Amino acid sequence: MEKIIVEICTGTACFVMGSGKLLSIEESLPANIRDYVEVQPVLCCGLCRDWTNSKPPVVSVAGKMIAGADEEKIIKAVMAALEGGNLC
Amino acid sequence: MLTEKNQYSYLRKELLTRFFTFLFESKNPLEINKIPYEMIPSGGDPRRCCIYKDREMIKYRLLSLMGYDLSESFDESPSLYEFFNRCGKDRAPALPPLSVITAACSSCRSKQYRVTELCRGCLARPCQTICPADAISMKSGKALIDGEKCINCGKCRESCPYSAIVYIPVPCEEVCPVGAIIKKEGHAIEIDRDKCISCGRCTRSCPFGAIVEKSHIVPLVAAIKQKKDMTLMIAPSLYDQLPGADSQILAALKAAGFSRVYELQEAAEIVAEEEGKELLERMENGQSFMTTSCCPAYVETVKKHIPELASHVSDTPSPMMAGARILREKYPGTTIVFAGPCLAKKVEAYEKGGVDLVLNFEELGTLLIAKSVEILDYPAAEEVTSFALGRGFARSGGVGKAVKASLEEDIHCSQIDGLSVKTIRLMKTWIKKAPEGRLVEVMACEGGCSRGPCSLNS
């Protein structure tokens, strides 16, 4: 089964604004989805420069961008991606 | 304290980033008036009663970032632009480092135990039976605590089988280890300057963000823009806080506007060695124990609350002061900036001199954001961990370990990991009965500096 890729930006802005703590999100994922998720640190894509529309930290879940990301938003997006793929 | 992940922590960093961006990039100083409106746009959800108060609180936070003291009453009518024009731009603001935004303080009810609606008015009534102050009566089938009689012992809460009794603290008062929060019912809190040790815990525990610290970033940016020779000293606790390898972090910090970056672990090892020598000397002179002195909040605690202990505190300067001395000799005209996770360092720097400006890690991190410095764009050199013992100063136990390593004989070393009402009470007993260790390492923050109030990712 293909894993859901969670890309977490480790650029300066995203890291300082909170992605540093999201890098270890795998540990806090609910047990039933943990095995379907792969966390990858990525470099800055520049989106964080635009605070009005895409606040850092920026995270992408299965290719879908989340601005102002936090644990809750990521888990929600992972669940949505899993349901979309009829995995659950 | 609040968990690190919270919306106030985000707001603080967002405001710092916007203010730095204004300071560095804006061609029109009037643009500072826009910051509250950009942070709190129309149509958003208010955090307080309305967005207008939210914006006003942003204004006050900006005043604190400019170095104004908000505790005293002052004319609030000028615009941010006028305040900015008037604020000091060539030196750090005067002490004290903390002030209270009275209008942001929620004027919490005094700490109390309260019976919630979960109370079932049971037959056994253990709460009423156990209360030593006879403060619990029954009203409409539920227990009721008489605030006048209650002595806040908490026994009723422990005894209730339904968990129906809750403790409602005043968060700032709860974390203050020295009773420096003056709480009068119905009023905003005040900080008792004679008691405050500037540990900074209250700033990170207030859910309304009402206690703020005066920042040094206006004089910092002014100096960078004047292309002055700037030396940044970084505390050993920095490395875990930013992405990338150490070499990348150092190069990035330099690119943010500093002539050079000095890692304090070297000075820390010199301090450890000096402290080791001092300890042996003191023991020869018959003194039973010595405490470390690198934690400025602890030094303040001794000064204000346990003066009898002063003769036991090491006279060796802290790594920050030792580093500043080395740098001042090498680069006489340089502006020395210290960056760390600590609030009390502002007091130490101001009182002892030698360090021109003090930044915290939130300010350092947001400075990099505002200058668009990408840490990971810099080449990563092969990691050579030097001064491992000096780096250990960042964690509790590390200072003692480094001092011990500098000595040939084995010396018993103990530690106080975090100041609290309890540990301060314990330290007061040392006047009569010496503690177990010959050397006692004292850290105000539990876990050491790396868990300091102004850290980013501890």
CATH class category of chain A? Alpha Beta
Question: Radius of gyration of chain B over alpha carbons?
Answer: 24 Å
Level of helix content of chain B? 25-40%
For this structure, the CATH topology of chain A is: Glutaredoxin
**Category from helices, strands and their pairing of chain A:** alpha+beta
Record field, number of beta strands of chain B: 15
Q: Could you describe the largest sheet of chain B, including whether it forms a barrel?
A: 4 strands, parallel
- Evaluate the radius of gyration of chain A: 12 Å
Strand order of the largest sheet of chain A: 2-1-3-4
Q: Note the overall shape of chain B.
A: globular
As for the number of domains of chain A, it is: 1
SSE pattern of chain A, N- to C-terminal: EHHHEEEH
Query: Share of helix among residues of chain A?
Result: 25-40%
Q: What oligomeric arrangement do these chains adopt?
A: heterodimer
Using a beta-carbon cutoff below 8 angstroms, give the protein chain pair with the largest interface and the number of residues from each chain. Answer: A-B, 19 and 23 residues
Corresponding CATH architecture of the largest domain in chain B: 3-Layer(aba) Sandwich
* First-residue to last-residue Cα separation of chain B: 14 Å
State the total count of DSSP E strands of chain A.
Answer: 4
